[in-house]
Write a structure and sequence with these properties.
Blueprint lengths: L6 E2 L3 E4 L6 H8 L2 H4 L10 H16 L4 E7 L2 E15 L4 E8 L8 H13 L10 E7 L3 H9 L3 E12 L2 E11 L6
Parallel strand pairs: 5-6
Antiparallel strand pairs: 1-2, 2-3, 3-4, 4-5, 6-8, 7-8
Helix pairs in contact: 1-3
Length: about 180
């Protein structure tokens, strides 16, 4: 792939990150309610958001993954969240998926809509390699994220005990997967 794939849904545009998205990323990750279930500390400076945007924007060109900036179609320049693939494993035809969204947009079906487009893209012809398995990890206790994944058809596989370590402690994570053969849309 040479050109970043822009995805559009009924309400959303999933586009490449730009430097100008740093303020919106800071607005999302400077909230404790967002970072409660995230492997990062609550942001205290715009510089951290700038670095996050830089990393996310570079994934595609380095073929390490792809992270879309989520924006409303009528406000394409305003980031409200993100989603995408990382930990690409070409040998196993698998990836991990991640996502985040500004709390003002929670419980409106926005991430369901965005992830549906992203999964369609992953299982389509334009992906880095023929994809068969998408994995997701959520905090034990993060029921909203688990419900989102189940709504999309992900199957829960179990708990990875003390699989993650951040914020000075180990975390149990729930493991989910979606196989190409399971995807119906």
């Amino acid at each position: 792939m040479s050109k970043f794939p822009v995805l559009q849904t009924e309400r959303l545009v999933l586009r490449e990150f730009r430097k100008s998205d740093a303020q919106a990323v800071f607005d999302i990750f400077s909230q404790d309610i967002v970072t409660k279930y995230h492997n990062a500390e609550t942001m205290q400076s715009i510089e951290l958001a700038e670095k996050m945007v830089e990393i996310r924007a570079s994934l595609f060109e380095r073929e390490l993954g792809i992270r879309w900036c989520v924006a409303l179609r009528e406000e394409r320049d305003v980031a409200i969240g993100s989603c995408g693939y990382y930990n690409l494993n070409k040998a196993f035809h698998s990836v991990e998926i991640g996502y985040d969204l500004h709390p003002l947009y929670w419980r409106q079906g926005i991430m369901t809509e965005a992830l549906t487009a992203v999964v369609n893209y992953g299982f389509g012809e334009g992906f880095f390699f023929p994809l068969n398995r998408i994995e997701a990890l959520t905090y034990v206790g993060h029921e909203a994220s688990a419900a989102l994944l189940k709504k999309l058809g992900f199957q829960e596989e179990g708990v990875r005990r003390e699989y993650g370590y951040w914020k000075g402690q180990f975390h149990d994570l729930r493991s989910f997967s979606l196989l190409r053969g399971d995807w119906t849309t």
